[in-house]
Every structure is written in structure tokens, then in C-alpha cells.
Specification:
The chain is α/β, with parallel strands linked by helices. The chain contains 10 helices and 14 strands.
């Protein structure tokens, strides 16, 4: 489309003939007058085509992530597919990462891992293993902090620093972002978008970080009133009972008929809008 518009503009510019070498000013004016009517018609037609083309371009990628002036990240997705996304935040240790990856592989499941820059720096081999296994990799900023308290420049630097770490280590360009603690404001979401990221939260929290045990994790997820098509489930690597609960959690979700997919496979990338509750809806 953009190529066609450029071609039309070039054609329109070529409508007005150049003054020939040796041609007098009066002869040139008479020639322009003779061709003026055709040139004007062509120019107007070209303008109409260009306006129509430019008007059509935004419509093909129309998105809206704000509601009443509030920037809204994705908490869940409205979909008829019985799918949920399993996400892990990697910001602490890595003692259970091998087990987590092994359990996911056993079930043939791909998840989404949101990593801090510090975790990437400390455990580069785990980052490579996550990518090699086919999982999503997401950005959780450089370190665990309340990003709403940072300036825009600090937000951008924090997000980009982690992006660069992962890119230089693996060649992978992350497009999913989760603010630490789920703390955000308009500035944080806008800055993430400026860096090329979709901001992703969760609507089902396992609360595995509270270390209440396996049964608590299973209950928090499998019996959650929010659990449904398009849900995004929050877990952590490095939590005390997460790896112990994961096998039963996957079986429980599958028993309820859910297919577990990575976030990247579930969200919409164009022609969508956000609801106030964080539901991403296709237009």
C-alpha cells in the first residue's frame, strides 16, 4: 500500500512538464495553460486516491490500549478457544528451573517466562534453555522495582537494558513486558509500547510466592473464579512449591478442558481494543 501511494505521488509530481532547453518563457506558459486542465484533473484524482489509501492504512491495524484516558495492559483475552496461558516470573533463583522446564517438556507445553535483566545476567544458560525449548521470553525490566515511581527516561532505560541483554545473548527480540509487582501507570505502559512491547499482566494468580504449599497453589488456580477462556496464569520460578505443584496444575487445567499455550499465541496484535477490566477484545 505504501509503495502504491509513493508511486502515485511520483506520478503526480511528473504531471507538470519541465521547461525544454531553449524554450521561451511565453512558450512555456502557453504549454502549461494547454495542459493545465488535464494536469489538475490528474492531481485531484491522485489526491483522492492518496487520501483514501492513507485512511485505509490505520483501519487495517486499528488498536486501542486505553480506556477513558487510562492505559490498560492485557490481563486476559476474550476468545472462544478454550485456551489459557501459563506464565512464570524469573527474578530470584534458578534452583527449580531445570525441573520446571522438564515438566513442561513432558507435557508438550510451551509457557511464557518474564525475566529481569539481573536474572538474565546471573543465569545465561537457563535463558538459552528456555529459548531452546520453544518458550516465550518476556521482559520484566532490569530489576524488581516499582516502575511507576521512575521517570520516563528511567523506565525506557530499564526496559531497553534487559531487552539488549537477551538480544545479545540469544538474538531473540522480546515483545512481551510485565512490570514488576504488577505496578504500572500510563507512563509505564506507554514507555513499554514505545520500546515495541505489549504489556501483559494476569487474571489468575497462583500466589506461589507466598509459600503456602502445593495444595494452595492448585486451589488458587484451578478453583479461581476468574479462570476461563483466555486467562493468563501467574507463577514464579524460584518459589518454594511451584515445581512441586506444576505437574498437578497442568493435569488439572487439562482435565477442565483447557489447552495451555504461550501468551504470544493467545493475544491479538492488531484490530483490538481493551476493556476497563483488562480484557483484550478483537474488533
Amino acid at each position: 500500500m505504501k509503495h502504491d501511494v509513493k508511486h502515485i505521488l511520483n506520478r503526480a509530481a511528473g504531471v507538470v512538464p519541465k521547461r525544454a532547453e531553449g524554450q521561451s518563457g511565453e512558450e512555456y506558459r502557453r504549454m502549461l495553460l494547454a495542459k493545465g486542465i488535464w494536469a489538475m484533473a490528474f492531481a485531484l484524482a491522485a489526491l483522492a486516491i492518496v487520501k483514501g489509501a492513507l485512511a485505509a492504512l490505520p483501519g487495517s491495524i486499528t488498536v486501542s490500549s486505553s480506556v477513558n484516558g487510562q492505559e490498560i495492559p492485557i490481563y486476559c483475552v476474550k476468545t472462544d478457544k478454550k485456551q489459557v496461558a501459563l506464565t512464570f516470573e524469573a527474578a530470584g533463583g534458578n534452583s527449580d528451573m531445570e525441573r520446571i522446564l522438564g515438566i513442561l517438556e513432558k507435557h508438550g507445553i510451551h509457557a511464557t517466562f518474564f525475566m529481569t535483566g539481573g536474572w538474565v545476567e546471573n543465569y545465561p544458560e537457563d535463558v538459552k534453555a528456555i529459548l531452546s525449548a520453544g518458550h516465550d521470553m518476556g521482559n520484566q525490566s532490569e530489576s524488581i522495582k516499582n516502575m511507576s515511581q521512575l521517570s520516563s527516561a528511567e523506565c525506557l532505560e530499564d526496559i531497553q537494558k534487559t531487552h539488549t541483554r537477551v538480544q545479545e545473548l540469544t538474538g531473540y527480540d522480546m515483545t512481551l513486558f510485565r512490570p514488576p509487582y504488577g505496578d504500572y501507570d500510563n507512563k509505564v505502559i506507554s514507555n513499554a509500547r514505545e520500546c515495541g512491547y505489549f504489556s501483559v499482566m494476569w487474571d489468575v494468580d497462583s500466589y506461589d510466592w507466598k509459600d503456602y504449599g502445593v495444595d494452595a497453589i492448585l486451589k488458587n488456580v484451578l478453583e479461581s473464579g476468574n479462570l476461563g477462556n483466555g486467562s493468563i496464569i501467574r507463577c514464579h520460578s524460584g518459589a518454594k512449591y511451584t515445581a512441586d505443584a506444576l505437574d498437578s496444575l497442568i493435569k488439572g487445567l487439562e482435565k477442565q478442558g483447557y489447552e495451555i499455550v504461550p501468551v504470544s499465541q493467545m493475544i491479538y496484535y492488531e484490530k483490538y481494543h481493551m476493556r476497563e477490566d483488562g480484557t483484550q477484545v478483537k474488533n
